[in-house]
Specification:
single chain; 216 residues; alpha/beta; 6-stranded parallel β-sheet; 12% strand; globular
């Protein structure tokens, strides 16, 4: 028998805050500028849901460490500008968080600095306070399970009673590796088929999440 869900672990980018569309646009620009032209689908496949270190490693392998460092510097500068100017929460997120009657936290591939900025701009930060976990706190990023296991242990819950809300193929893979259920949000950039798999409910409208959790 499946245990009831007792903790909901949210990814941040693309699940709570709509940063992924901004990041996609900037990475397309940088690829064209720095010698690795990619279309949007390839960038989603390679970069979405991965840590900054994992993305930089891919770029360095392709273009060299110096170009990778230039890419990273320009990316951070442009993303910060775009976040401050145009970032919004994912539609329906505030309603979901306000109506959720379970403990919840964040476990993201982003840094704490990045999350302070994005959650601050969108006004979501007070809902999470000290319940924010970053891939910088663990040895391996997604798709390894380390971050989700770290978040669950710190919050005091066993993996089998945790549910993860993710929008990337690497995120749902990490949830499965951690022995957790996952809800794959296909209302963003990732095709639904990339999220589908064992112990995963794929959905496209964020406001539907509480009912899906209650039914699991």
């Amino acid at each position: 028998m499946t245990s009831p869900i007792e903790l909901v672990i949210f990814d941040c980018d693309g699940v709570l805050v709509d940063t992924e569309r901004l990041a996609l646009r900037i990475n397309v620009e940088l690829g064209a500028e720095l010698g690795w032209p990619m279309d949007e689908r390839e960038i989603v496949d390679r970069f979405l849901g991965r840590s900054n270190a994992a993305v930089t490693e891919q770029i360095a392998a392709r273009l060299g460490a110096e170009t990778a460092a230039t890419w990273d510097q320009r990316y951070v500068e442009r993303l910060n500008e775009a976040v401050d100017r145009e970032l919004t929460e994912v539609p329906g997120v505030s309603e979901v968080l306000d109506g959720l009657d379970l403990p919840f936290c964040i476990a993201s591939s982003g840094t704490h600095e990045k999350m302070r900025r994005t959650l601050g701009v969108t006004g979501l930060a007070p809902r999470f306070t000290d319940r924010i976990f970053s891939t910088t706190e663990v040895a391996r990023g997604k798709p390894a399970p380390d971050l989700f296991l770290h978040a669950a242990a710190t919050m005091g819950f066993a993996p089998e009673v945790c549910a993860v809300v993710e929008d990337s193929q690497y995120g749902v893979a990490a949830a499965r590796a951690a022995g957790m259920r996952s809800f794959g949000f296909a209302g963003g950039l990732t095709p639904a088929a990339w999220l589908a798999g064992p112990r995963t409910v794929v959905f496209e409208e964020m406001r539907a999440l509480p009912a899906l959790i209650a039914a699991s």
